[in-house]
């Protein structure tokens, strides 16, 4: 696993946006997997700035989402599809036709999960998938004890997760109880995984992910099994890493670092 420690979220955003831009230059029709939440926002902002400056052409880029709430009406402002339209598609100038995601409003939810798996396969698979990490080590909505071989499926949100997400709704009662999420096995099929973390609150989860054993209790630790996984963290999120000096030295020795 490649670990990169940067000064702050802005540096993280610029670095990862540059990696995405390099991918697009090599493969204009790439499938870029995106995640919601505040952590990846600097990446999207830095990438949008490159597009606006004419440094990146996203005309053939495809975008796919990691997860989606179940049961929200179409167009609900807090559905992840709508959030990603606002935070990723619109700033990059990408239309809905280039966006892939599961249907959280489908009557046949297991069928919708299988259909999304097929969509990803038909698109040639995800080239680069951004991931955040929960304080308990979850990725997507794969909570602790999720199968490391799991595929896209319906998951019940923990009360802790619902409370965390209540700030986006008019109270806890409005937060959906179920989601569709890519499974860990699905996530591991992406060609390149980039996990982002900032802040001291994520330090314990980052250390368990990078330096602990592979365990279903820490779903993100499955990234250790991937041939091209990169963890990009700020100083605060790196503070519990035992080998932080090694990671810093390794990165410093690669000033022309490419293709994280």
UniProtKB/TrEMBL annotation:
Please list the residues that make up the active site.
67 (proton acceptor), 136 (for ring-opening step), 138 (proton acceptor), 143 (for ring-opening step)
Q: Which GO terms describe its molecular function?
A: glucosamine-6-phosphate deaminase activity; identical protein binding; isomerase activity
KW Isomerase (keyword) present: yes
Q: What is one GO cellular-component annotation here?
A: cytoplasm
- Activity modulation: Allosterically activated by N-acetylglucosamine 6-phosphate (GlcNAc6P).
One annotated GO biological process: glucosamine catabolic process
**CDD domains reported for this sequence:** GlcN6P_deaminase
Q: What is its EC number?
A: 3.5.99.6
> For the site Part of the allosteric site, which positions are given?
146, 153, 155-156
Give the top-rank taxon of the lineage listed in the UniProt record for this protein.
Bacteria
Reaction(s) catalysed (UniProt annotation): alpha-D-glucosamine 6-phosphate + H2O = beta-D-fructose 6-phosphate + NH4(+)
Gene3D superfamilies recorded for this chain? Answer: 3.40.50.1360
- Pathway participation: Amino-sugar metabolism; N-acetylneuraminate degradation; D-fructose 6-phosphate from N-acetylneuraminate: step 5/5
NCBIfam families the UniProt entry points to? nagB, PRK00443.1-4
Fetch the HAMAP family from UniProt.
GlcN6P_deamin
Which family does the record assign? Belongs to the glucosamine/galactosamine-6-phosphate isomerase family. NagB subfamily.
Q: What is this protein called?
A: Glucosamine-6-phosphate deaminase
